[in-house]
Specification:
Keywords: Chaperone, Cytoplasm, RNA-binding. The chain has 246 residues and is an all-alpha fold. It has eleven helices and two strands; from the N terminus they run αααααββαααααα.
C-alpha cells in the first residue's frame, strides 16, 4: 500500500509574522472595600454663600457681584438707611465682615482702587496704609508655583504702591505702622530700590533741563537712551519735586 503524503499549502504572506496572541490587561482594577469597584471621587461641594451676601449681590451687583469694588466708610449705615428692615442687622454685619476679608475684595484694595458708595460712585481714594496691608495679606494667602519667587513679586508691588501713594519715604512709613520684622525688612528693600531709581530719574531730569533740548525723543537719541524710559523718569522726577514742595 502506498502511503500518500498530503502537502501543506502555506497561504501566509511572505515575510509577515504571525499575529501575536492577545494579551490580557494585567493592570489591577481599582476596587473598593471587599472587592467592590471604587466609587468615583466626589466633587468638591460649592462654597456656601452667606444669605445676606447673596441678597447684597442682587441689590448692588456692581459692588457685591461677580466683580467687587472697595466700599466707602460707613457703608453699613448706608445700607440700613436705604433698605431698612429688608436687611437683617446682625446678618449684615457678618456678611460685610466676610466680604471685606475675602481675597477678591483685598485684591481690589491692594490694586489701589478707590472707595465707592452704593451707587458705584467714587467717593474717596484708598489710604496708602490700607493698600499696603491688603497687599501683604493677599501675598500671605498665595501658594507659590514651581520656581515662583513670591517675595520678589511682593517687593515690586510694595515699590509701586509707595510710588502711587505720592508720599515721601518718611510719611509713607509713618502711615503704615508695620509691626512684623520680616515685612518691614522687605519694605525697606523695596524703598531702597525706589530710592536708587529715583536718583537716576532726577539725574536724567537735570541732564534734560541742561541740554535745553525740549524734545524727549531727540534727547534720548542724543544719549543713546530709550525714549519711553526717559519719559517715565522725567515724570517720576516731577512727582518727586511736587512731593517736596507740597
Amino acid at each position: 500500500m502506498t502511503e500518500s503524503v498530503s502537502s501543506t499549502v502555506d497561504n501566509s504572506v511572505p515575510g509577515a509574522s504571525a499575529p501575536a496572541p492577545a494579551r490580557a490587561d494585567r493592570r489591577p482594577q481599582q476596587r473598593g472595600g471587599r472587592g467592590r469597584p471604587a466609587a468615583p471621587a466626589a466633587a468638591r461641594p460649592a462654597r456656601e454663600v452667606h444669605p445676606v451676601l447673596a441678597q447684597l449681590a442682587t441689590l448692588h451687583p456692581t459692588l457685591f457681584g461677580a466683580t467687587v469694588l472697595p466700599l466707602k466708610r460707613g457703608i453699613y449705615q448706608d445700607l440700613l438707611a436705604l433698605h431698612g428692615e429688608a436687611l437683617d442687622k446682625a446678618g449684615l454685619k457678618v456678611a460685610l465682615a466676610i466680604h471685606t476679608r475675602s481675597t477678591r475684595y483685598l485684591n481690589a484694595v491692594a490694586a489701589g482702587a478707590p472707595r465707592h458708595d452704593l451707587q458705584g460712585t467714587v467717593v474717596e481714594a484708598m489710604a496708602p496704609g490700607h493698600v499696603f496691608h491688603a497687599l501683604v495679606e493677599v501675598f500671605k494667602r498665595k501658594k507659590p508655583r514651581d520656581g515662583e519667587d513670591l517675595q520678589a513679586k511682593l517687593r515690586r508691588r510694595m515699590a509701586l504702591a509707595f510710588i502711587d501713594s505720592g508720599l515721601s519715604r518718611e510719611a509713607y512709613l509713618e502711615s503704615l505702622q508695620v509691626r512684623d520684622a520680616d515685612t518691614q525688612a522687605l519694605l525697606d528693600a523695596a524703598l531702597d530700590e525706589v530710592a536708587e531709581q529715583d536718583a537716576k530719574a532726577e539725574a536724567v531730569h537735570r541732564a534734560y533741563v541742561s541740554s535745553g533740548s525740549g524734545d524727549v525723543h531727540a534727547f534720548a537719541e542724543m544719549y543713546g537712551m530709550n525714549a519711553h524710559t526717559v519719559m517715565r523718569q522725567l515724570h517720576r522726577a516731577g512727582q518727586l519735586q511736587a512731593t517736596r514742595t507740597a
